[in-house]
Predict the 3D structure of the following.
Amino acid sequence: MLPIEVVQGDITQFKVDAIVNAANSSLLGGGGVDGAIHRAAGPELLEACRKLGGCPTGHAKATPGFGLPAKYVFHAVGPIWRGGNQDEDQLLASCYRECMRLAQELNVKTIAFPAISCGAYGFPVERAAPIAISVIAEGLKHNPQIERVYLVCFDHSAYQAYRKALTCLQGQDAAD
Ligand code: AR6
């Protein structure tokens, strides 16, 4: 059984080693989950982000969590959906891969992801969910220290898409 759990909730409340932020390439805050994380973490987070000098799409950078219950924030920059033929799938996969790499580097045991790119950036969640889950499942092979991965969905449609993708992957695993 994969240590992946799909949950509905507000990621800023999660007491885990790392939460992932769906940031933009400036890393200087924004709306959606990014705005919520900055509000909950306090102004020190913005100060730390300024020092990072931005981040390209498909990559991620880590800061402390400051006022958050989480120890770290991994700021991942997802792709803007442009119809599906502009490398969006690969760039989204790269975000999750980068976060799993940071998890290994920082010895993260528990991590929570939002549905990167599935809000303001317009990536269809039914397409994003299987990408997210398969990259995380692959990353778990290189992260034996990880005890739990939470996929935090804010709305019910994302929750349903993620549940479906996880059930599908577990079915495949069982068949292997
Ligand atoms: N906890 C968990 N998930 C959340 C929360 C929360 N507190 N708030 C929203 N979501 P979005 P993107 C969900 O728009 O599409 C920002 O302005 C939301 O329902 O936050 O990657 C950045 O600065 C959706 O499913 O991120 C960028 O400019 C998911 O999080 C841009 O938006 C992602 O939605 C990034 O857009």
